[in-house]
Write a structure and sequence with these properties.
- By secondary structure, this protein is of the alpha+beta class.
- It folds into two domains: 201 residues, no CATH class; 177 residues, no CATH class.
- 56% of the residues lie in helices and 19% in strands.
- It has 16 helices and twelve strands.
- A hairpin with a 5-residue loop joins strand 6 and strand 7.
- Helix 2 runs antiparallel to helix 14 and helix 10 runs parallel beside helix 14.
- The longest helix is centred in the N-terminal third of the chain and has 41 residues.
Length: 409
């Protein structure tokens, strides 16, 4: 048996000579990993939820637009997509769905009542695949591509005193200044988490919108989806290699910089909170290691007195600490998996002011958890490194051991 194997065997036996002390240390590490992992999962889940509420609810992860549209969102900056655009999108394996849109503004009217509204021309089937628009229909029916009907936000319909089956009048300016006016039956009412969208949204089949604005075959954007945000970088790289002027491919980060800044600012704040948590965990582990060394100081003196090298003793204590650390983080990982798995599949529904605030921001009032691998291994690695650093203390204590003082301890 090699010296290292012997040291591991001795270290393992030493750990369980004092089960209470070992279990206290393991518990410190276990709860540290569990708390840090759950906290990180909740944090990353909230970021993912915010991003998905924006991209899946409306903008998509990527949009292809005319290069002038983002800075000047008028219907004159629309584009007529060529076949090569669709071929590029469909050939990109990371893009799961896409939907064409024609967006503009109009006055929505009903007899004497009028309110400004956002008119969004969509392909009903493709839009529903991307944003799940159909699930927000609270009354009436979803759009059909071959029928000139509209979906109206519930608050807008209430203001205009309209309901399902009534007629909505849209007045606006079309492509290159042509007059745009039309009357459309309301097929359904929408109620979104975002109150502002309920007050101004009008969805209409894209073919009908193109007729209304005198912009046949023209689009303001082509919204694209990927499986999740972690595929975004590769997907946009592939698109930009093939999509050139006068088109431009934009990511959600470029379209919603305020959301990205909010996530980064919150993540920076969370780093401070995690640092405090890690410090508390570190001192908890250090306290038990300190107790372990103090309890065994006489034993260590005897071992050196009978001929054990201090370096061998130091290595033995180091292996003991590392074994405790390894078992603790392994137990913490095993304990955090079922907790996060449960809350990942059963997000916590918020109520009261917290829910109202999130709904005003257009975010569903739920506390989501993330299942990203980094949520687990980042905490495991961090706390194991903390334990390894703390393991230097027994090494230093062994190397600086004064035998005569240890024997009288």
């Amino acid at each position: 048996m090699s010296a290292m194997q012997t040291n591991f065997k001795l270290a393992w036996r030493n750990l369980w000579r004092n089960k209470k002390r070992t279990l206290i240390t393991l518990a410190s590490i276990f709860f540290g990993v569990l708390i840090a992992t759950v906290m990180s999962s909740m944090q990353e889940g909230s970021y993912t939820s915010m991003i998905q509420n924006i991209v899946k609810f409306y903008s998509g992860y990527i949009q292809i637009q005319h290069e002038d549209y983002w800075d000047n969102k008028t219907i004159n900056n629309t584009f007529e997509p060529v076949d090569s655009i669709f071929e590029t999108v469909e050939s990109n394996e990371l893009i799961t769905n896409y939907a064409p849109r024609l967006e503009s503004f109009a006055l929505a009217s009903s007899e004497a009542l009028t309110r400004g509204s956002a008119v969004i021309g969509i392909d009903p089937e493709k839009e529903n695949e991307i944003t799940g628009l159909g699930k927000w229909v609270v009354e009436g029916e979803y759009l059909r591509a071959d029928v000139d009907h509209v979906l109206v936000g519930s608050e807008l319909a209430k203001y205009l005193e309209l309901g399902v089956g009534d007629t909505l009048v849209l007045l606006s300016q079309g492509y290159h200044g042509v007059s745009a006016a039309g009357k459309y039956a309301i097929s359904g009412l929408l109620r979104f988490p975002n109150p502002e969208m309920n007050k101004q949204s009008v969805y209409i089949p894209i073919r009908t919108a193109q007729q209304l604005y005198g912009a046949p075959n023209r689009l303001t954007s082509l919204a694209l989806m990927v499986e999740d945000q972690y595929d975004l970088e590769k997907a946009i790289e592939g698109l930009r290699q093939k999509v050139g002027r006068p088109y431009v491919a934009m990511t959600w980060e470029e379209m919603h910089p305020e959301l990205l800044q909010m996530v980064e600012a919150d993540r920076a704040g969370a780093v401070v909170m995690k640092a405090i948590l890690y410090i508390l965990i570190g001192f908890g582990i250090f306290g038990t290691i300190l107790m372990m060394v103090a309890e065994r100081i006489r034993e260590m003196g005897v071992m050196v007195a009978v001929g054990m090298q201090k370096t061998t003793l130091a290595m033995l204590l180091f292996i003991e600490t590392i074994l405790i650390g390894f078992m603790g983080v392994l137990a913490g990982f095993a304990g955090s998996v079922p907790v996060i798995a449960y809350y990942f599949n059963n997000p916590i529904k918020l109520t009261g002011d917290a829910a109202a605030t999130m709904e005003e921001m257009g975010i569903e009032p739920y506390m989501y958890f993330s299942w990203m691998p980094s949520v687990f291994y980042n905490q495991v690695i961090t706390i194991f490194v903390i334990t390894a650093i703390i393991a230097l203390y027994p090494i230093i204590s062994a190397l600086r051991l004064k035998v005569h003082m240890a024997l009288h301890a």
